[in-house]
């Protein structure tokens, strides 16, 4: 789960990390009032995305009037950053924060490293830019320090980071304090990422977290009601949110072929196969190994509600999952929604014969596939034909 910068900044404060003062505004009038206590200030669009600065979502205001004007322009605007995709995100809130005179910007984060099974501190003296860019073009400018979860953070690890960033004396001590706070926050709140980009050294010689980003491990949210409360469903893909309520693993993608698959591995293979046949999947959807007919119906409804979808490919390899359960869900959902889209079904494994028989007897208009490759090919062709027909019908 992601949260907004203003929420992350508050958690940073709770853990003793140095954050400039700031307040949230949802109207230009509120922004004006806040700016009177802060001016000059930075007005920052609150959307679940980085790269806001370059996209016009972070602006300096030298007077309250200017802050009001900027807030008024920003609120309601669609911010398109490198991370949002072309559809962008609507700005519904702005965060006003004290301006700071920046001398040097650093990148600092704590995340997990599956290879070493530990936490990983990532640091770079090239802050401000996206870390992905630095990693791609200048991997030598990044320091990674693993921190054992069982042994905890050690002073020498912090000293290595300070040394790498060229911080000594009081700055070194402060950096160690910041790292301890980040790691404590990471562990206590079950985060998957705590990122400060940029961490800055001000002209007055103070270290400050100028941006705050925290992602949380969804699997641990059940033990953090205070974090779950920070969820902003406006920022989430409606379908991804809906899917999470049914315990479905669903991720929206940009293509036009809706996929309903059991098992993450098979779902990924299905997406590869669709691409190999010249198509693009509209989603990743794993209904899981023990889906009920109700869950399958919900999954199907999700696919149908997506306007991008021009064909649906059901690819099931029944193991624990029984193919007749899938058929039951498909028949119910199609009955409810009156499906107009081409439906391609491949059923194999446990109770495949029963599942196929149910689909046959239901009288549903569907295309059967003998295997995954055949199904992917048929789905790509059917989506294309459907698209042409729609275009023809409209003109
Ligand atoms: P992001 O682009 O979404 O990561 O948003 P940030 O919060 O990181 O802001 C973008 C950039 O604006 C930062 O990297 C800083 O360089 C700059 N910035 C933000 N606040 C201040 C400030 O108070 N003073 C100065 N000089 N620069 C700032
Ligand atoms: Mn940033």
Morphology call: elongated
Helix content: 40-55%
What is the percentage of strand-forming residues? 15-25%
Strand element count: 18
Distance between the termini: 43 Å
The low-confidence parts are none
Q: Helical element count?
A: 14
Q: Over the alpha carbons, how many angstroms does the gyration radius reach?
A: 25 Å
Bound molecules: guanosine-5'-diphosphate, manganese (II) ion
The profile of the biggest β sheet is: 6 strands, antiparallel
Mean pLDDT: 94
What structural category do the secondary elements indicate? Answer: alpha+beta
Main attributes of the structure:
binds manganese (II) ion, 395 residues, 18 strands, 4-stranded antiparallel β-sheet, alpha+beta
Written account of the structure:
This protein is an alpha+beta fold. The chain contains 14 helices and 18 strands. Strands 7, 8, 9, 10, 11 and 12 form a 6-stranded antiparallel sheet that branches. The protein has a 4-stranded antiparallel sheet with strand order 1-6-2-3. A 4-stranded parallel sheet has the order 14-16-17-18, sandwiched between helices. α12 links the parallel β16 and β17. The longest helix has 23 residues. The chain starts with a helix and ends with a helix. The structure holds guanosine-5'-diphosphate and manganese (II) ion. The site of manganese (II) ion has 3 residues, from loops.
